[in-house]
Amino acid sequence: MHPTMSFCLHPRCILLAAVTFLCIWAIFCPSEIRKELSCTPLMPAPAAPVPPLSLPHLLIPNIGVCTGLGSPLFLLILVSSAPDHQEQRDAIRASWGALQEIQGYLVRTLFMLGEPSNSPLENIKEVLKQEAQVKGDIVQAAFMDSYRNLTLKTLSGLAWAAQYCPDVHYVLKTDDDVYINVPGLVAELKQRGNDLKKDWQQRYLDRDGTAARSPNLPVPYLYLGHIHRRVYPSRSEYSRHWVSEVQWPSARGPFPPYGSGTGYVLSAPVLRLILRAAGGVPLIPVEDVFIGVIAKRVGVIPTHSIRIAGASRYPIDRCCFGRILLTSHHIEPWEMKDIWELVKSSSGNRPLCSWLQEALGMLRCWVIHHWHF
Ligand SMILES: *[C@@H]1O[C@H](CO)[C@@H](O)[C@H](O)[C@H]1NC(C)=O
Question: Its family (predicted)?
């Protein structure tokens, strides 16, 4: 046998290969490590005065959702849905959307809709009204529901949140084909919120050590998602993501970093900054890019989380969906219920992940995803 070949089967060589693989993964997979390197601003610059945002009025305003809850809503989940997607909405209602409280932290899920355009269903308007009345979780605004109007849908939802849920701490914007690990997300936001507050105190308040114990701390600035960087606008008029030269001039280069629209979180102060600045920016029809553009304007740097899967579809797996991932895209309505059953803590007394799976966490889900084990 050739000497180098026998050397490469040596355990040390295998270990070296494994370490190299891990390093490459850590560098190229935008990760927590990168987040640590980019410095999240704690006090963004104030937005320059801009014309107020004019949005379509609400057809189904549903203004009572956040009143009389007893304590402030911790997380509002705004699901972008199409009028004829009742099956998708029902699947969410029957699975993760049913969760309204996680260890004392209140959560609500609402569906954002526009007006049905040319739906094959004749009586869809009546059906929708009924659905909204019975379920009480629909907000509908007066604009034509189309892919190129999704930015209007998001803005209507965010404006609704700011107006009718003024005490909410975090808002998650997502779509009706995304599985949300609600307990995981609440825990993550609690943790990040505490860390950011501690940072904030140390920098700004903790001069004499008293403010650190103050219970009335503000909700920190947070824009969390699966962050896309250096994405250039599509100039093909046939593309769903077409952005015109007026909306984003080529001279400006790539878009600023933005969180994939499949799931991004804005904390209340960021939400308010974004709404205040949105009127001064051309309405880029790609909803998630638009939020990234305004965030950049108001000085909010997005934070990447490898647990937010973005647009990738991960194979259904109990540990990944129940513990590690916070959002997972491309989930069909029937799969929502399947995953929900799978991750229910009562399915046996088996823990969601073994200690090894938990420790390797994201790496494990990522490997399953890429190699379809
Ligand atoms: C967006 O909604 C408005 C208001 O209903 C409508 O006039 C417009 O045609 C819609 N745009 C697209 C691209 O669908």
Answer: Belongs to the glycosyltransferase 31 family.
Rounded distance from Cα 334 to ligand 1 centre (Å): 31
How many angstroms separate the CA atoms of 78 and 306, rounded? 21
**CA geometry: angle at 103 spanning 100 and 106, to 5°?**
35
pLDDT in tens, 233-266: 999 989 999 999 999 999 999 999 999 999 999 9
Most informative mutation of 119, 146, 152, 241 for ligand 1 (most atoms within 8 A of CB):
146
Q: Say how far apart CA 90 and CA 172 lie, in whole Å.
A: 19
Q: Which of 42-51, 142-151, 217-226 has the lowest mean pLDDT?
A: 42-51
Compute, in angstroms, the gap from residue 56 CA to the centroid of ligand 1. 11
Q: Which pTM does this prediction carry?
A: 0.85
Please state, in angstroms and rounded to a whole number, the distance separating the CA atoms of residues 326 and 178.
Answer: 10
Encode 83-94: b = buried (16+ Cβ within 10 Å), e = exposed: bbbbebbbbbee
- Atom of ligand 1 at shortest distance to CA of 56? 4
- Answer for the pair 189, 73: CB distance below 8 angstroms, yes or no: no
The residues lining ligand 1, judged by C-beta closer than 6 Å to any ligand atom, are 143-144, 146, 148-149
Using CA positions, which residue lies closest to atom 10 of ligand 1? 144
For a substitution probing ligand 1, which of 144, 153, 156 has the most ligand atoms within 8 Å of its CB?
144
Atom number of ligand 1 nearest to Cα 148: 13
| Nearest to 112, CA basis, from 75, 155, 157, 152 | 157
Q: What integer pLDDT is reported at residue 49 of this predicted model?
A: 74
- Phi–psi pair at 203, nearest 5 degrees: -80, -35
